[in-house]
């Protein structure tokens, strides 16, 4: 009986380890794909509108092509949709609602925490508070279906080809690096907000941010960030 419990405990531990690794890899894939999707979309729009090539930054962290908004979205879709089978139209409806709620929430939190917004749909058809729109919600529903039935099987296939010991080390490294990247990015942006309010730095970290992560530096990274309280 004791041996059976030990076997069950080991299996549950291994399942949690695999889940952690998949979440990290899916987060990274979402961050990278989201960043390049936004940047390529800008290029296409600019070419169609003005006939000129213009590449801008759409990443969300200071280091690397990572947009955490997309990474978190990919992980949510994986946890909420890929671990439980449903009819495709149910996934579409839930995906549309989740996409709209997520986009609205991220815009609201960004404005309340840092006084900036990265998108404004106030002049779009059927917009909801300028933070999302009904047509965009349907688009997110389609994206959820593409992730469930196309992208996730590809990610899972690649993951299963990676040796277990290497996958664990790689996931741990990526997790630690992204935690550092996200932390320093949050500190730098928060310090920028305080600078705009005329608040002097009170710590060595604040002074470091003012020296190295200036407004000009951050503007190159967060090119589409608009201050709603200039």
What does this structure look like?
Strands 1-4 form a two-stranded antiparallel ribbon. Strands 2-3 form a two-stranded antiparallel ribbon. It has seven helices and four strands, in the order αααβββααααβ. It starts with a helix and ends with a strand. Helix 1 (2-50) crosses helix 2 (68-82), helix 2 packs antiparallel against helix 3 and helix 3 (88-114) crosses helix 4 (134-161). The longest helix is centred in the first third of the chain and has 49 residues, at 2-50. It has one domain (2-227). Helix content is 73%, strand content 3%. It has 230 residues and is mainly α. The protein has helices spanning 2-50, 68-82, 88-114, 134-161, 164-196, 204-212, 215-221; strands at 116-117, 127-128, 132-133, 226-227. The mean pLDDT is 89.
Q: What's a concise summary of this model?
A:
This protein is mostly helical. The protein is built from seven helices and four strands, in the order αααβββααααβ. It has one domain (2-227).
Features:
230 residues; mainly alpha; two-stranded antiparallel sheet; 7 helices
Mean pLDDT: 89
Oligomer: single chain
Q: SSE string, helix = H, strand = E? A: HHHEEEHHHHE
Helix content: over 70%
Secondary-structure-based class equals mainly alpha
How would you describe the shape? globular
List low-confidence stretches.
none
Q: Order of strands across the widest beta sheet?
A: 1-4
Largest sheet: 2 strands, antiparallel
